[in-house]
Specification:
3 helices, alpha+beta, 20 strands, six-stranded mixed beta sheet, five-stranded mixed beta sheet
Length: 311
Amino acid sequence: MSSYRNQIKQIIVFILHFNSRIQHISASSFLNANDLVNMDQPYFDDISPRNISAVVDETAILRCRVKNKGNRTVSWMRKRDLHILTTNIYTYTGDQRFSVIHTPISEDWDLKIDYAQARDSGIYECQVNTEPKINLAITLEITAESDVRERNSEKLYYDSKAARAKILGSTEIHVKRDSTIALACSVNIHASSVLWYHGSAIVDFDSLRGGISLETEKTEVGTTSRLMLTRASLRDSGNYTCVPNAAVPASVRVHVLTGEQPAAMQTSIGNILSVSIAIRITCWIIISEEVLLLFNTLSLAEYILVHRSSR
């Protein structure tokens, strides 16, 4: 009897130890998977204005920085004729003025146009072949040198060290679905206007989505812009860029979650916790059976003693 009880205890200790290991693995797995959710998907890190001006016969550079590119392909497309100009470092146009500036250790995939001409004016898109595809639209305007001087006199160009937007708070935020997304950026100049982009599209306050508001405030030291989106949905996830006039933009990454954790993580942890509960129930059953066995054994011994004494 003593040997049987020892064996049962050893089994229970082993199961409880195994259960604690599963719980530890579930916690660490969530952290690793959550990191992968944040790090796996490519996105644009906007470092330059969406409107670029250049002088005829000079070089125009359209900047595109892609984070977490992985094995995806980065392409440049001319919007007016949907012509693919470059793919990764390769050029797919007979116009040799077009090329890509990229070094192996860099996240930059800048489109370079030598000897820019007026006909090069228009919208260009930097694209990444994710599913669905993401793109960053940049408008290029090629002007005569006299036009550029006039614009400089109106202070439309900026010193990157002096005029810059900054996201207030974290640049990577997580919000629950149906809650409110509140974004804010400050600019250290009095910007005449501040636009917000979601991915490559400007935030449309008149869209059917509704629930979008923008407040722009002039302060003593510059400008503050606050964007609010109520009733957040999964479609609201992505990169948001604060684009002030005549200042370097700033971006923030938004993740809309279905609960405390992303939906996939909830399913995974739920399955693991289910296993943990099942193990606990099994231990309870084994312990109960052992108690029942002991009870039956004691009852039998008591019966024998009573029977013998009666004789």
